[in-house]
Design goal:
With 115 residues, this protein is α+β, with helices and mostly antiparallel strands. The chain has a single domain, classed as 2-Layer Sandwich (GMP Synthetase, Chain A, domain 3). It contains five helices and three strands. It has a three-stranded mixed β-sheet with strand order 1-2-3. Strand 2, helix 5 and strand 3 form a beta-alpha-beta unit. It is elongated, with a radius of gyration of 20 Å.
């Protein structure tokens, strides 16, 4: 048998007041300073729709951290292109996902080919 801490009745969580799993996940994500589960799902799951097939072929979302979307591009020229596209992409992300993403950080994917 495990020893449970002695908590006053008002501190014991009640399953009746917990809400849905999705609500609890969003609550946890919010406490961690993250976007909602719906926003994360939209950004990563609908990337090609949000940014267009041409951009999606060269740019991959990696993570969302501190209200910034981190992406990886397949060529250095796409890093430059992303600077020009950033305002449009942020507007698209905001309107489609209700996100609070304020910027995009770009890194160039390492070339792993051997010569």
């Amino acid at each position: 048998m495990t020893n449970l801490p002695n908590l006053p009745d008002e501190e014991i969580p009640s399953f009746e007041n917990m809400g849905t799993l999705g609500e609890q996940l969003n609550l946890l994500l919010g406490r961690l300073g993250s976007e909602s589960a719906d926003t994360i799902n939209s950004v990563f799951g609908d990337w090609a729709i949000l940014v267009g097939e041409h951009v999606a072929a060269h740019v991959t979302p990696i993570k969302i951290e501190n209200q910034r979307l981190h992406v990886e591009v397949d060529e250095a020229s796409w890093a430059t292109q992303m600077r020009f596209l950033e305002p449009q992409l942020l507007a698209s992300l905001s309107s489609a996902t209700a996100s609070t993403i304020v910027g995009i950080d770009v890194r160039v994917k390492r070339n792993t080919r051997t010569k």
